[in-house]
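Support request from a user on the community tier.

User writes: "When I paste my structure tokens into the form, the page sometimes reloads and wipes my input. The last time it worked, I copied everything first. Here is what I submitted, just in case something in the input itself triggers the reload:"
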């Protein structure tokens, strides 16, 4: 966001000029920022396609293989709050370049890994780089694009990449694994990361360095608490919600995050300024993001299982199957970013959530004999259309009216809710999938034993697994049940948007660029002005709620 610099003894300083106002550099700046976010988001799913190949090459156990995904999710989710605040204090461009290069180095190490330990260490390092780069990338949009249409378009592109990057990851992973080998899913990040790091100083404007220091206690409690929370969800998906270590992880996370909140309330320079939650729209946005992330992570994960196991798609064909979703998200986000200044974010949150719920509800009708064109493409496009509207609206609302010195922290919070929501949702949906599958097996056993050949009965009694179309029926039943819960997540998000989000005249004016600056940098930490709800954030002629007389 454009900002006024702190007043000094010599009078007020001239406001910063956003890169978006300089004209030519803005398009390349957006390309650099969006490329980083795509690299980070893509890496969440690109690995899934290569897991069988990685298991054979590095002799992973079945249980250990899941940590190729989990090691990334754990460090990414655990360090997001710290990564976002680091950019505010040390300079976002500098921290952004560091995060990108750390991600690139970790990717190189992952591609060169010779054993399972080396690969898991590289994946954890990748997650650390992503936790630094992703929130600073989002915050850099506020530094480099003028508030109004230019920033709306930039947020639209960022949201489209964030929501649709998972589908692109499946495609890229399929191409690299089929045409080259699994190591290239890591190597491909190295030249991209280097190019981003080289282009950043030339095309992206640095943010003003903010006075302050790292709240060490807050940093330790937030990082450990978030990591344990993510770990608890990951373990719950693997071992169940009654597992002792799962419950211990959740209990420790509650204690640490509680200590974090107490620390932040007392700190003069908190890692996460808690007054951000005092703004009704922003707090509601975090809850909505949590719910939608749960749905979108689940949709990609379980539909990938369905198209590869039931429809027998190859990894490459599975990736191509999701490409229309990414395209729909991009188009929807671009359209929403143009119309937001006229209507505000609420209509798009409600419409997006409704479309997403309709798409997931439609997917509950999948059957063993469903086809991609006849049963999957329509609801996938509907879901993508809704999520494109949703993510751009959420991103704009979460960062609107935030003090420039806190935009990194605000971006970290939004990313943290997206990451935690995704891991939480997936763990819940995996539990639902397992329960539905077991129930279906019990229903099918008698029919199978009555019709199966002797060899099939013996194999079933030895392994406990139904063969062929019987197994497809079990998987399909589980997927259908998962989408019922996924649709519930999006319905909850839609209801929150409908009830809690308010569109104020000042919000529309800010989206149009009519309010060129947010509260000054000299505002006291924790003041109402920093949350975008104080007097300096209101347009003339409005009351404290932002409504006109």
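"...and here is what came back when it finally went through:"
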């Amino acid at each position: 966001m454009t900002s006024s610099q702190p007043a000094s003894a010599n009078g007020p300083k001239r406001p910063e000029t956003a890169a978006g106002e300089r004209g030519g550099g803005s398009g390349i700046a957006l390309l650099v920022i969006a490329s980083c976010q795509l690299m980070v988001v893509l890496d969440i799913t690109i690995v899934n396609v290569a897991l069988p190949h990685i298991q054979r090459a590095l002799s992973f156990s079945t249980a250990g293989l899941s940590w190729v995904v989990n090691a990334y999710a754990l460090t990414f989710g655990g360090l997001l709050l710290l990564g976002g605040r680091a950019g505010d204090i040390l300079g976002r461009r500098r921290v952004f370049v560091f995060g990108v290069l750390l991600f690139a180095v970790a990717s190189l190490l992952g591609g060169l890994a010779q054993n399972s330990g080396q690969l898991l260490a590289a994946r954890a390092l990748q997650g650390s780089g992503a936790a630094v780069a992703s929130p600073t990338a989002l915050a850099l949009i506020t530094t480099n694009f003028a508030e109004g249409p230019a920033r709306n378009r930039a947020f639209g592109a960022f949201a489209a990449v964030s929501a649709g990057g998972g589908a692109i990851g499946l495609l890229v992973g399929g191409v690299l694994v089929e045409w080259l080998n699994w190591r290239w899913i890591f190597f491909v990040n190295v030249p991209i990361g280097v190019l981003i790091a080289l282009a950043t100083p030339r095309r992206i404007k640095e943010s003003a360095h903010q006075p302050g220091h790292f709240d060490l206690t807050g940093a330790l409690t937030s990082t450990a608490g978030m990591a344990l929370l993510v770990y608890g969800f990951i373990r719950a998906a693997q071992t169940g919600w009654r597992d002792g270590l799962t419950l211990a992880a959740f209990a420790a996370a509650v204690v640490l995050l509680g200590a974090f909140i107490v620390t932040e309330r007392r700190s003069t320079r908190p890692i996460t300024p808690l007054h951000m939650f005092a703004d009704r729209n922003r707090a509601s946005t975090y809850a909505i993001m949590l719910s939608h992330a749960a749905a979108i992570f689940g949709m990609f994960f379980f539909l990938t299982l369905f198209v590869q196991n039931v429809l027998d798609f190859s990894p490459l064909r599975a990736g191509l199957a999701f490409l229309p979703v990414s395209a729909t998200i991009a188009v929807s986000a671009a359209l929403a970013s143009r119309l937001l200044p006229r209507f505000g974010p609420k209509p798009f949150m409600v419409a997006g959530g409704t479309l997403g719920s309709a798409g997931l509800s439609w997917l509950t009708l999948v059957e063993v004999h469903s086809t991609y064109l006849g049963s999957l493409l329509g609801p996938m496009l509907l879901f993508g259309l809704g999520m494109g509207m949703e993510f751009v609206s959420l991103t704009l609302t979460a960062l609107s009216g935030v003090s420039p010195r806190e935009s990194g922290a605000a971006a970290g919070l939004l990313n943290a809710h997206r990451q935690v929501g995704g891991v939480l949702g997936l763990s819940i949906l995996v539990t639902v999938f397992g329960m539905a599958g077991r129930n279906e097996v019990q229903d099918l056993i008698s029919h199978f034993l009555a019709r199966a050949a002797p060899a099939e009965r013996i194999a079933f009694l030895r392994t406990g697994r139904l063969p062929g179309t019987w197994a497809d029926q079990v998987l399909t039943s589980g997927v259908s049940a998962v989408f019922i819960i996924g649709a519930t997540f999006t319905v909850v998000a839609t209801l929150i948007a409908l009830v809690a989000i308010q569109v104020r005249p000042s919000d529309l004016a800010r989206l149009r660029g009519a309010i060129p600056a947010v509260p000054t940098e000299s505002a006291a930490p924790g003041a109402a002005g920093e949350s975008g709800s104080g007097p300096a954030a209101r347009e003339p002629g409005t009351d404290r709620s932002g409504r006109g007389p």
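Agent notes: The reload is a front-end session timeout and is unrelated to the input. The chain has 18 helices and no strands. The first helix runs from residue 25 to 58. Escalated to web team.
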